[in-house]
Structure formats: structure tokens, C-alpha cells
Amino acid sequence: MPQDTVIEVEHVDAGYPTLRVLEDISFTVQRGEVFVILGGSGCGKSTLLKHMIGLNPPLCGEIRIKGDSMTSGTTEERERAMRHFGVTYQSGALFGSMTLLENVCLPLEVFTDLPLDARNWVAEMKLDLVGLKPFASFFPADISGGMKKRAAIARALALDPEILFLDEPSAGLDPVTSAELDRLILRLRDLQRITFVIVTHELASIFAVADRCIMLDKKTRSILAQGSPAELRDRPPNAAVHAFFNREPLP
Amino acid sequence: MTIILPELCSAETIAPLWRDVMTEISRLGKGDEVTLDASGVTRCEGAGDALILELVRRAAGQGFALVFSDERRVIERVLSIFDVASFADDPATVNPKRNTDTRVQVGQAAVRIYEDVCEQLAFLGEICTSAFSLLIRPGRLRLRDTMLHFERAGIDALPIILLIGFLMGLILAFLSAASLRQFGVEVYVADLIAIGLFRELGPLITAIILAGRTGSAFAAELGTMKVNEEIDALTTFGLPPVFFLALPRVISATLVMPILSVFAVLSGLIGGLVVLMGMRIPAVTYWQHVIQSSTLTIILMGLFKAAVFGLLVGLVGCSHGLQTARTADGVGRAATAAVVGSLILITIFDGLFAVLFYLLGM
Description:
The complex is a heterodimer of chains A (251) and B (362).
Chain A: E1 5-16, E2 19-30, E3 34-39, H1 45-52, E4 60-65, E5 68-69, H2 75-82, E6 85-88, H3 100-111, H4 116-129, H5 145-157, E7 163-167, H6 175-192, E8 195-199, H7 203-209, E9 212-217, E10 222-227, H8 229-234, H9 239-245
Parallel strand pairs in A: 3-8, 3-9, 6-7, 7-8
Antiparallel strand pairs in A: 1-2, 1-4, 4-5, 9-10
Helix pairs in contact in A: 3-4, 3-5, 4-5, 6-7
Chain B: E1 2-4, E2 8-9, H1 11-25, E3 33-37, E4 43-44, H2 46-62, E5 65-69, H3 74-81, H4 102-136, H5 143-153, H6 158-180, H7 189-227, H8 230-237, H9 241-278, H10 283-293, H11 296-322, H12 328-359
Parallel strand pairs in B: 1-3, 2-4, 3-5
């Protein structure tokens, strides 16, 4: 596993001005790994993700993407950091009035000088990578939930980011589609050396893709455990981690 | 000809290269040879991959020979991931332009209008059925919802209704007084304002405000509920959405319109009074003329029109809301269609009322 750090989260308090969800969170993500943030519902996984991708500022602490600060840096530094990553959301968040190809072409049109045929080539290739090339001219309303998630990944890949943040990629998908998505994540990691940060609580997906994970806890507002999924399952440091990995109610 | 790929094949470095390369190779044919040199490439992103694939596709199509210099196996990697033959012949045509033929557009518009009319008629049928069932069992009406919509459409709209009504009266008085003053009969401005507001402008202005404010809100609320599958949930509960959601809104819009119209007229009359008092016409004289000219028939005509306009705004707003497409722009389209549809119907019905009242000698 490569050892160069691409994401640094240091002493971050996550939440909103009126609600502190997590306190003093610190961890790093290495290049080329699949890093999973997991935990029960309401523990602050998505809130932390929103801080990492710059949607909401954390209450305190520092987040750096490839050395560029997302929290305390200049606007230019923040914009530079944002060019390093792509994001997919729970619902896919595809633009309903555009075809899948147009969805993928949009960032290329806005951020590059590529001519139309080159943009279409790149967009078609990204759709091909996620297995959706035959559906390039379809609108989001005409495809299934799993296809929407894959199309969202293709759009997030349009500008060749080094990091992909996925928010609940398996949510609402059947096991087979979910497994296909897991395979896609691993394929992209291997083919393009993309670093993945995934927020999920789907155990099957965690075991299928994660190199390393952190488990957040609602009660203590902290990181309860970190390590590989197998380590956490086989040697859980406390009862809550044991309960989570064995699908048991908390003692 | 040799094409040397840059060390970093990103969108920034490939964009200027792409145009030059495509111009050059478009002249090539059988017997020509192109060397694609990727020996210095350290990182190849999507744009670089696309250039390699396009060159392979062009070579196959135009018949020129493509030779690779690929010590770092960059090209080999790209060709192992993507199957060139499966891509479109011309990527620029992947997204076909929308048909701009005027005849096609006119035909499509006609079909849309026809479908829209059919949907409106179906909705009208459903709402009539719901209203009929309500007559049989009035207790089924969701009174709390109806009162809530009554408050939102009525009491919350009062400030804007009063302001617009006042300004309408003011403007009407100024315009008419300027003409009538030349004949020394500016006192009849009071009659003009009273009849104009009670019979025509009061209901019309109020209906326009209601369409923009409440009709669009009805469409947006119901549209969002449809997108969120709340309407599907109601249907599966066995609760007809038209009865449960649309009927309270339509009833509240129909009942609130005459009341709002009265407020608009009264504030308009005060606006007129302000102007005429500025022209040294006593308030008593003004109100005497207003009372004399405002016959019961004129007031009832205005109230009846207002109720019909309210009914139209409620029907169109709810109809478009329930027919919202399940897309992000669907709610916006529904709200716009509700306002436009309401305004068109209000204008048509206003014209019909003018003819009807004329025929009835009113």
C-alpha cells in the first residue's frame, strides 16, 4: 500500500453552530487506499464528509487535501484542493434535464478547453468505465438507482480527480447491484489509482472494498476504532464495535 | 508524421494539441504513417486516453498506419481498458441536436396542448366527483387543512392585496380625474372608481395576485409531494389525492377570493379618496357618489366573478401540482404552468363574463 498522505484531518470538531456532533477527530488517508468512514445512523458520518469536501466548515480543526487547506487556506488554495477530488451523493444528484453524457460533459465544458468531440470522447470513456456507455443518451429519470450511482461516479471522474468521496454508495441498492458497485470501486482504484473515501454502514460493502476504516460513535462523539474491517471484526476494541460488526443490538 | 504526447496528458495539455493533431491527420490517407510517441508520458488522464483512442479510430477509418512508441506501456494500458470499436463513429454526434424543424415543433406543441387539455379535463372530472361526494358527506372535508390554506391564501395575502388595491385606486383616480377635470365633473371620478373596482378591477387584480402567490404555491407544494412520493403514499393508503389534497385547496381559494376582492376594492376606494381630497372634493361627497353608484347588482357581479376566478386558480394550481414530472425542474415547470394557465383562464373568463353580463342587460 502506498504511503503518501493525500488527506489530513486534524483535531476537527464536526457539526453545526448549534450542534456539536463529533469532537477532536484526527486521521489521515493514504494515496490509493479505500478508506471507509462508518458508524451508526446519526453519528456524524455525512457531517464529517461535508466538512471534508468543503460544503460546510468544521467548528474547529484543520482539513488538508494533498497539502491544500480546506478550512484555513485562501480561496485559491481551497479551489486547488477541490480540483483534487470528485464527490458522489446518496441520490446520485444527476441533473435531470441532461442526458448522462451531458451530465459527464458538464464539468469538462466548464473547466477545460477541450473541443466538443474531445469532451464527448472523454465523457463516453468515463461512462464506459462504469459500464453505462450504451445509456449515454438516456436521462436520469429513465435509469435505475444503481445506474444513477454509477453515472454519478462517471461524472465525478470527468476531471480525473485523484480522490473520490462517495456518500452512502450502496444505500437503497439490492445486494447484487451493491456488489457490482463495490467491484467498480476496486476496479477504478486499480486502474486509475484513485483514493476512495466512502461513507457507509453497509457491512458487506465495507468488507468488500475497505482497506482501512474508522468507526464513529454518537455517544462519545469520537472515533471509536480504526483499522482494517477484518481487524475490527476479529479483535473489536469494545462492545460497540463488536455489536456493529456482528449486527447485534448494543448491550 | 510524429505526434509526441506530453509528460502529463491532462485536459490542459491535450486541448491545444487536439485541434492541431486533428487538422493534420484529416489530410492523411492510405500509405501515410503516423508515429504516436508516448515514451515521455508519466501520467495519462482522460483527455490523453481520448486522444489515443481517437487516433486509433481515425487510423482505422482513413487507412493510414499508426505506429506506437510506447516504452512505458501507456497506450497499451488505454487500449486494454477501452474497446475502440465499441465507441461511436463520430463522438461529436453522440448527442444529437434537438429537432429544430418548425413543423415538428408546432406539431409537438399541439400534442402537448391536447394532452394538457385532456389532463385538465380529467382532473376537473375527479374534483367534481370529490365535491359531489363531499355534498353527500360534508363531514369528510378536512376542515383543519382547509382553514390552514384559507389563512395562507387569504390572511397572509392581505398586506399585498391592500397595497396593490390602494395603488390601483390612486392611479385610476389620477388618470380619470385628469380627463374629467377638463369638463369640471371630477366628482364623477368616485362613480368611476367604485364601478370599476367593484365590477372589474377588484376581482381581476386580486385574481392575478392569487394566481402568482397561491396558485404557484399550490403547484409547488403538490409537485414536491409528488417528487417525494408522498402522493404515492396517500394513494396506497386508499386516500384519493384529489379529495385529500386538492379539494381543501380549491375550496379555500374559492372562498377566500371574494373576501380578498372586497378588501382590494375598499383599499382602492381609499386610494381614490386620497386623490380626490387632494383636488378639494369633500370626503362626504366622495362617499355619497360611491354608495349611489355601487348597486347590489354590481357588488354581487364582482363577488361572483371573484369566486369563479378563485376556483380557476385553485383548480389550475392543484392540477399542475399533481401532474408534476418527477424531476428537479418538474416542480418549477409546474409552478410556472400553474400561474400562466391561471392567468389565461382568468382573462378568458373575464371576457366571457363581460359578454354574459352585457347580454343579461347588467
